[in-house]
Fold these 3 entries.
Entry 1:
Amino acid sequence: MTMRDSILDAAEVRVRGGGFVAMSFRDLASDVGIKSSSVHYHFATKHELGEALVARYTEQFRARLDAIDMSDLDRALADFVAIYANALVLNETICLCAVMGAEAIGLPEHVNERTRAFFRLNIGWLETLLARHGAEASADAASMIVAALEGAMIIASASNDRNLFDQVARAALRCIPREKLDKR
């Protein structure tokens, strides 16, 4: 593992647990056992670090999505929700892009564009899955499900109640019109 990867790992833990704005290069340097100037060597600015962090997170998420078998709708949906569920660890972490999305107003455009790319990836993947199985309004359903899961993580975390996430996830999936879905 490179020092750049170690810095990104430390940054991900800090951002997912406390927010991007609260994270400092000094914190990261302490976390990985280097000087703050060494963090600057790898990432000239905090915003450059944020862009790299979201890009890496998106690629890791893409790899998880690519591993899901889309042939069985219910199984694929369960696997999709499981990725989000695994990102939620009460009192520790939520989805990196949920945090970045919540802080978007104060972030530079290039960081926000990376965050939007994450959401487009997830919505697009889900829309493709739903369309393959004959769902009507698959774009609407995909957007609603992703928004529900991201919001559910924030609310469950703030409420310290994992059941809220599970409840919203189940409700979001029930909103998919099933009467016209193919029965592969």
Note: The two ends are 43 Å apart (CA to CA).
Entry 2:
Amino acid sequence: MKQSGVTLLELLVTLTILTILASVALPFTKVSTKRTKEIELRQNLRVIRAAIDAFRLEWARDGDTLIGPACVKNRLSCKDVTGPYGYPKSLDALLGVKLTGEQATVRGTTIRRYLRSIPMDPMTGAADWRLRCYRDPASVKDWCGEDIYDVTTQSQELALDGTKYREW
């Protein structure tokens, strides 16, 4: 009578092969997770920076000289929401600027939005971006509080390519 089944040796060989495959796959999942966060960070930085640039185009000013079309039409709002160079005073200004000029009264448009919400920093898990003013050098550690020219992550970690996330 012939019995079918798996011998102990075959079972041990199979388990050994599975263990080797799992130990090879584990580092790839860690790299894959980090790469996903890096892609999300780049996208979020791109979204915020594009919103800052769009804001600057419309609300541009040079000191007390109002240059941008939205700034000229909404003089009262302009100095409340922009710094001396036309960049937003806070990230909240990108969520909505209350218009005070003819657009608000004639067209019924009362708020100009550049972002629906402030994106999260995937490296820190919060919307706690590191801010930089227009007049600050790229290596500055403290935000001057005057306007927002650029944002970077608060993370001190290194990227897969060896650069610091903070320098992106």
Note: The chain has a mean pLDDT of 86.
Entry 3:
Amino acid sequence: MKKVIIVQYRLLHYRLELFERLQKTCESRGIKLHLVHGQPTKREEKKRDVGTLPWADVVVNRYFSIGSRDVIWEPFPAQHYDADLVIFMQENRLLSNYPWLLLRGLHKAKVGYWGHGRNFQTRHPTGLLEKWKQFLVGRVDWWFAYTDMTKDILLSDGYLAERITVLDNAIDNDGFVADLSSITDDRLAELRGELGLPEGAQVGLYCGSLYPDKRLDYMVAAADKIQAVLPNFHLLIIGDGPSASEIKEAAVSRPWLHWVGVRKGAEKAAYFRLAQVVFNPGAVGLHVLDAFCAGVPMVTTADAKHGPEIAYLKDGENGLIVQGNDEVYADTIIALLQDPLRYAQLRAGALAGAQRYTLQNMVDSFADGIERCLMMDRKF
């Protein structure tokens, strides 16, 4: 039985189901999958997003701070040096990756990378850190790419297409779909009453962390313009974060703007059932899948610092990508809310996206890539 190790410097709670399913799928294909993980940095502990798996190997990381950055050394368990394939996250700050990448002849195992291909949030896309990351792209036998956008980056860097597996990064949406289905008309009427939504209100929804890259000032400015044209428009904001004070302050003078804090499960689903459009002028990430599951078109901007999951949002097909200022953004949403046929088309596209970008499809793609990598010769 072939032995494969996936190394994560920390284990995020939303990845638990992925690893559980992937281990079982690999087992059914004659592959023994192991997970090795450490702990979050002190800065990351505040997010409280860590999970545990009883079958994972837990190691103790060492952290070093360089200015505002943390660099990490994650020990590799000696009992796994006989692995056939080791898959690492693509991050410059993971110092423990470098012996595997730069001293390939010392290790029996093939080496895989799982990552974005670039840092999509960097303010220095042509800086030394990104050039270093680009240099290391070709030092692995296989790439497990987050999305098609990552694949395009790798191909532009000269990496071989036959050694790339596109995972279509996803989360377990089954629970959220069930939550959406559980919301009754009575619950929706109750929630409308709690929020003071008038009959026939047109509802926008923002759901996510509140921080500068989310362009919250742009969102509020656009909402002001929409409300001036559509007096029954209300904007609901789910989430918390360092920029929450901006939203709280804005809500004081805007009775149609409702900040409700963090909502999860069925509570979050009820707000999505009320909404006609999802606002997200800033960085788009995995939460685009929530909009797809709810069949609510998301509207974002072309020039935000998006994650690779922006590849899922197809302009005019399952959502809208706006080029321009907050006035253009507002006009785009007003036009959408006043065009039932176009709205129905985008809603159908969003629901179709929910069927494509699923956790099970990601698991199957991951297992397929592992199998193909194990069958092929080492890259060099």
Note: Residues 92 and 258 are 40 Å apart (CA to CA).
